[in-house]
Design a protein that fits this description.
The protein contains 13 helices and 22 strands. With about 625 residues, the chain is an alpha/beta fold.
């Protein structure tokens, strides 16, 4: 018997009747070897003697429960099963010490290769999101502030997941973040409520102002929208001019559209890659993408402990919530097979088992609901588990959970038996693997703060230039629209800033799209538009200009001293040996965009070629 099946059987209970006995498969995991069980007797009191008489070895007695925990060889197990005074026998399930793991993204971005610098306390990171669950066991509860009232709660979970990637603690539980000592100061600005509903550009301008007033050097935003705003762009440009480094998600549309604020030239736009360093299929691919970071199945902190199970024949199978489906403490019905559930069946009062594929999760669950089913259990059509969603704005009246392919195929053999589906979220310290450019963004924000902590006198332009210049090149050689300059690397950037040459990067590999993400977070935080049935709010009430094809002005590696870079654009003035024809304007330097677009028509020679091209 496999280890996974043994663990699933570990919670099974043997209910004893006059003539029928069902024993869990775990009882015979090792032929002839005794197993650990808990035996419940009809009467309370001490029953150790009865267990010994049957050939068992008691470990604990619980007289108030009428239970004896014991090692039982097979003959003792069968003997007690026929004892009329025994009510039930259950496997004594193991309990393991909680341990801490390092998500793959932390290693990929080299956050585990350098320590926090001596000035980490001077590099404040501001997270604009859905809040922060300050009671989480793996998130710091000190050295943190926020706005407005209630910033330290998070009914959505998105903000706490983002924060965990930045700064989950190095303790004995959960995961670790890019910065893990609890020393990095955090400021949280809550712009999304418990329902994860969208905010507006003006909300973001207000949040940015509060980040700046709190003294933040890095602003992390796992959010976005499809329409630009002149006021919003100006606010972020002003923040850049004041020395703030802003980082935002490139977007989850899987197309070439621009997302804002990420696509303003003063921000770092972050794409998502998977554990194999391939760009994610959902990641936006456009000329504004600067850097890439892990964003597929990223394990981090959430403010709830999720329970999503189906119990059949006394065995409980753990799965995942189909996002936006109804929650339930338990619905019960006969387990029936629905195939791929591409059409509603006659399933009144039954729990329907559906195979993944063919149609969306929403359509499957909706069909089960239309057919009268009490709950939907969707199992994977490839090896392993998955996380699914009904999609933004979609809901159901029945619970729906996802199972691994192996567990689903096991349940196919148990059709007709009673099944109970539980899908519940309780407040507490939980961990989930989510996908999205929202999950990639905090890797870059955290790395920026980690590198900056080694020398707070470095400018935002120097930090950005170092991150871009030392990123691991992927896809087309050099900068491309899928990966930007490549996957961010903390140690490489720090070494470069400290005077060493950037380390060689691996030979670029072609961009390969990943399968459908395990979970694309909800509408607003990830940049997905609201449902079509409701008006689609824009980031600004003014529509984008008809000629808007933004292009990013690349940030160059600063020229070494003694030249002077007064405006922080990475180019020194001509007077000090550089090539910047206007060192008081960070939009003017060789190579800047001087054509139609965000910087065109400004009557300025942006690219220093002596001609006003726009």
């Amino acid at each position: 018997m496999s280890v996974s099946r043994l663990k699933r059987a570990a919670g099974a209970v043997v209910l004893l009747g006059a003539a029928l006995l069902w024993l869990p498969e775990a009882s015979f995991a090792q032929e002839g070897a005794p197993g650990r069980y808990m035996v419940q007797f009809r009467e309370h009191g001490s029953h150790g003697a009865a267990v010994r008489a049957a050939g068992g070895s008691p470990v604990h007695e619980f007289p108030d429960l009428g239970v004896v925990a014991a090692w039982l060889p097979e003959p003792a197990l069968r003997g007690l099963a026929h004892n009329p005074n025994v009510v039930s026998i259950e496997v004594d399930p193991p309990r393991y010490p909680m341990s801490q793991s390092t998500p793959y993204g932390i290693s990929m971005v080299q956050a585990d290769q350098i320590s926090e610098g001596p000035s980490v306390g001077n590099v404040k990171v501001c997270v604009i999101d859905s809040g922060y669950f300050v009671g989480h066991e793996d998130l710091q509860d000190g050295n943190i502030s926020g706005y407005p009232s209630g910033w330290d709660t998070d009914g959505c979970g998105h903000g706490s997941h983002v924060a965990g990637t930045i700064s989950a603690l190095a303790n004995s539980v959960g995961v670790v973040g890019v910065l893990r000592s609890g020393s990095v100061p955090l400021h949280i600005v809550k712009v999304f409520g418990s329902n994860c509903v969208w905010a507006y550009a003006s909300d973001l301008i207000d949040a940015l102002t509060r980040c700046r007033n709190a003294g933040a050097k890095v602003v992390s935003m796992s959010l976005g929208g499809g329409s630009p705003s002149a006021a919003e762009e100006t606010a972020f440009q002003n923040a850049w001019n004041a020395g703030v480094l802003s980082v935002a998600a490139a977007g989850n549309g899987g197309n070439t559209a621009f997302s804002y604020p990420a696509s303003y030239s003063s921000l770092i736009s972050v794409a998502a890659v998977d554990s194999a360093k391939n760009v994610a299929s959902f990641s936006q691919k456009n000329s504004q993408v600067d850097l890439a970071a892990p964003g597929v199945a990223v394990l981090s902190t959430v403010p709830f402990a999720d329970t999503n199970t189906v119990t059949v024949g006394g065995v409980t199978y753990a799965g995942t919530w189909i996002e936006n489906a109804a929650r339930s403490n338990g619905v019960t019905g006969s387990l029936v097979g629905g195939g791929t559930c591409t059409a509603a069946g006659s399933w009144a009062g039954q729990v329907v088992l559906c195979e993944r594929g063919g149609i969306s999760f929403y359509d499957k669950v909706h069909n089960v609901q239309l057919g009268g089913g009490t709950g939907a259990v969707i199992y994977n059509n490839v090896a392993g588990g998955f996380s699914g969603t009904l999609g933004a704005g979609n809901t159901s009246t029945i619970p729906a959970i996802g199972l691994s392919q192996a567990d689903g195929q096991t349940l196919v053999g148990k059709l007709g038996q009673s099944a109970t589906v539980v899908s519940r979220a309780d407040a507490g310290s939980g961990y989930e693997a989510w996908s999205g450019t929202s999950m990639a963004t905090p890797h870059v924000s955290g790395v920026a703060a980690l590198v900056w902590s080694h020398n707070p006198t470095w400018t935002n332009a120097q930090i950005r230039s170092a991150l871009e210049a030392t990123a691991e090149d992927r896809g087309t050689a050099g900068r491309d629209d899928s990966y930007g300059y490549g996957i961010v690397r903390a140690k490489a950037a720090l070494d470069s800033l400290n005077g060493g040459p950037p380390p060689p990067t691996p030979t670029p590999t072609p961009a390969v799209s990943t399968p459908t993400p395990t979970r694309t977070p909800t509408a607003t935080p990830t940049g997905t538009p609201p449902p079509a049935s409701t008006p689609t709010p824009t980031r600004t009430p003014t529509p984008p200009p008809p000629t808007a094809t933004p292009t990013r002005t690349p940030t160059r590696t600063p020229t070494p001293a003694p030249c002077t870079d007064a405006d922080g654009d990475g180019h020194c003035s001509i007077a000090t040996g550089g090539d910047d024809c206007n060192d008081n304007n960070n939009k003017v330097y060789p190579g800047a965009n001087d054509t139609k677009g965000k910087q065109g028509h400004d009557r300025v020679d942006n690219d220093c070629d002596g001609i006003i091209d726009g």
